[in-house]
Amino acid sequence: MNAFTFWSPTKVVFGADTAKLAGQEVKASGGTNVLVFYGMGSAEKSGVLDTVTKSLEEAGIKYACVGGVQINPLVEFATKAVEDYKGKGIDFILGVGGGSVIDTAKAVAHGLANPETPLWDFWTLKVELKKSLPVGSVLTIAAAGSETSMSAVLTNESLAMKRGLTTQLNRPKFAIMDPVLTYTLPPRHTACGVTDILMHTLDRYFAPDTDNAVTDEIAEALMRVILRYGKRAMEKPDDYKARSELMWAGSLSHNTLTGLGQTLDFAVHQLGHTLSGKYDIPHGESLSIAWPAWARYVYNHDIARFANYARKVWQIEDPDDNEAAQKGIKATEDYFRLINMPVTLTESIGESCKNDTAELADFCTFHKARTIGSFKTLDFNDIEKIFEMMI
Description:
By secondary structure, the protein is an alpha/beta fold. It has helices at residues 22-28, 42-46, 48-58, 75-85, 99-113, 119-123, 187-205, 213-235, 240-253, 267-279, 283-298, 303-314, 321-338, 345-349, 357-364, 380-390, and strands at 11-14, 33-37, 62-66, 92-97, 135-139, 151-156, 161-166, 174-177.
């Protein structure tokens, strides 16, 4: 095993009908005046927002609610919330929703703790984040893993750029996880979630240092579970077993467990963030588009690793490493198609993207100021070729 540090302090409250515990968890975390975030209306329609606010009232906790978080969380939205609520004694932020809502909650927590600093300065690393407010989550979508992760993404709409911020200050105090809340998700949201969960482990699995047997075995088992129950949840949305396995897999896939001892790659996420920033497509779709092109471009760099993925995750028995590797890539792409996810950019947005590859590569490299990836380091020319393969 390679050296690593593992720290996952988020308290997980898992099971049916747990949203009613939000008030007591906020109180136990020291919250007295809570700002609650939710999305575009599903939390209201499902009744989970009422359940949460009732629990806050029963716990004697003051609260205000802010809805309207979009599928790609915006720095402009978070900045306005900071402006609206700074100086009002908010001491806890609660996200009721999926990754976009929870990431927005994290951003506002950072902003209210540092009202003198523009939020985007933290995401561009212009200013180091040193303090924040505590955050909790009531998860309604199994996808991003933000409920237990140290990551948060924001999109700057004016710049058409999406960036992530990784810091231990992003770790929520608690995550309430009720699989029943995911029954009514539209199929597209479920499929995007399955893709995101899978990709959080794939972006750790394909690393330059892989002498970590326990980590690999955990990752491979988790991916098999995701594939099995992702398909089942698409076929039967109210299957508690499928929904519960996916929800827990989502947290484990992004709390660092599946990449311990390995150097993170996350090139596919960087490519995907570029697509979401430019075209405002859902995060999951950006990943199902980016992964097949990335995989075919880089697999020759370590054919044995891709062959191992094919054999351990897809049970492909071809003895030839090259053949097995290619079959594993195709099996992944076919699975995306099975759950109705796009695997090319034109499938997602049409023909208008064909002349955008140089601009996309420029955005992805921060105007040629960086490379991405660790499995294979990718420069501007590599990245442009991968974007061309996505078309």
